[in-house]
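Journal club prep — side note

Before the paper discussion, L.F. wants everyone to see what a predicted structure for a comparable chain looks like in token form. Sequence:
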Amino acid sequence: MSKLYDAIKKIENNKNQKEEIPFAKQRKRDEKTKKRLIILSLLVSIFVLSGLFIVVGLKHNKPIGVDREKKSKTVAVKSVAVKKIVKPKKADNSVKVEREKESVDKVKVEKIAKAESKLKQRKIYNTSITKNKTNNIAVKKKEEKRQDKKLTTNVSKKQKPTISVAELVRIAENGSDREAISAYKRLIEIFPDNLDLYNNLAVRYMDIGEYDKAAEILRKALSVGDSADIRLNYTLALVKLRKLKEAKEEIKTINIEKINDKKLYYALISILSSHP
């Protein structure tokens, strides 16, 4: 029995060994295939890299050594050119200085010319302004004369006035300076002996600043008749015209008691006394 048992065990062991052998062979085969694949991948990568280097070299078509030689040559050429350019610069310093001076002189001359042109333009502008002012004054005087001619019709003593006296009085009291002056002139033509009309006309001229005309009208009034107020206004016109000697002589003839505006009288006395 023991022999049979041993024989059976041997047979079973042989079967187990036979079953394990194919599995070991498969493992060995798998390891060999893996090694072959790794080697193939390395070879492929080497071929690919070498192909890339070849392509890059073909694009440039220049080996690295040749480029370095050419670069060194270009550097040498540049240095030689710089040396050639530097030499004339050192020699032409005086020429440069002269050119700079000439440019500065030109700039100064241009500035002076511009300044002179501006001054000329200003002078021309000022002369044009003065001419315009004189022309405007002449035009104003002509217009005033025209207005006087329009408002004052040459009415003789025999002719009857075209405008009523009431309207002339209303214009003289309520109208503008020019209208009032023309109205007072018409009223004086109608009433030549009325001293108040002369006085009011002179006051209107003084309001405008025409003291010469005011003095003439007051002289005419004094030739017609004597009045303290007219003499006072006549002295005022003389003071405004800077005729102080005549004003001093005229103020001595005034009767203070007959004056309506005594403040004006004393003011004129103070002015005349301050100017000996």
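L.F.'s comment for the group: The CA atoms of residues 102 and 108 lie 10 Å apart. Keep this in mind when we get to the figures.
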